[in-house]
Amino acid sequence: MRRRSRGSARVSSERRTLYVPEGLAGERVDTGIARMFGLSRSRAAELAAAGLVELDGEVVAKSDRLPAGSVLEVDVPSVADPLEVVAEEVEGIGVLHEDDAVVVIDKPVGVAVHPSMGWTGPTVVGHLRAAGVRIATSGAPERQGIVQRLDVGTSGVMVIAKSEHAYSVLKQAFRDREIEKTYHALVQGHPDPLRGTVDAPIGRHPGADWRFAVREDGKPSITHYETLEAHRFASLLEVHLETGRTHQIRVHMSALKHPCVGDLTYGADPTLAQRLGLERQWLHAVRLGFVHPESGEHVSYGSTYPDDLAGALEVIRGAD
Length: 320
Known about the structure:
The chain is α+β, with helices and mostly antiparallel strands and 320 residues long. The chain has helices at 29-37, 41-49, 124-130, 164-175, 248-255, 270-276, 307-318, and strands at residues 2-6, 9-19, 53-55, 58-59, 71-79, 94-98, 102-107, 155-161, 180-188, 195-199, 202-205, 208-214, 222-230, 234-241, 283-291, 298-302. Strands 6, 7, 8, 9, 10, 13, 14, 15 and 16 form a nine-stranded mixed β-sheet that branches. A five-stranded antiparallel β-sheet has the order 1-2-5-3-4. Responsible for synthesis of pseudouridine from uracil. This is Pseudouridine synthase. The active site is at residue 151.
């Protein structure tokens, strides 16, 4: 078994070797590979184009012909399961609290909570595994112990269940909307009214399944906001969520025509984002409060603005 590395993906390859039979003499390499190894012809052509096919020890092209009795060797890569949790410590993840039931962390930007299709970067669950933190086994394999999520581009405080009992209790508390989730968002312009509630269902965007939008057939979604600071180009809001839909704050603010600063996915001004040095949406989970699943006491944890958000806010304040 040969091991290859390609970027951050973990790839293994299996070398297969066969003699070319008389019946395939004169056939193209890609046709012969497809028939001999049970691959599609397009897959066989890809392997040849990648230099993974050898005939009698020499790399060959897909259109070369096969002589009978020659040795055909093919390296067939197989990418590891993209949903597999990989133990990898992540710089910047801070532990705010840990006990036998829960671990509360401060998640930096650029880190996913758990593995997902298309994501090859660092994850919270991978970091916890590398750090020796055992979490609950409830839930899908790639997101065991996860009771809430933050976007890759959103930073801040979140909780992960370590015990099965904590997982069950916290999951139900999130469903019952008993968790206090507080965010700060810097949005373009000035929302009118300065304090209000957005009650609008959210579903997948009809033109792009990686985006979301307000839709009549979407899931119920409720966002409360209050203006903390109003500046020339943007307003700093405190946001409380009743529901926890994917991209909820970003979608609702965009629907109000006041997208999060830097959120180019949902209509933010790229010129302003560049001026502020932002490469992601200005959105941060500042506080999380809940009833501890074991002690029954109400606990609350907070997170300060990371450097990129704090710097952008100071520029906005200085522009008045």
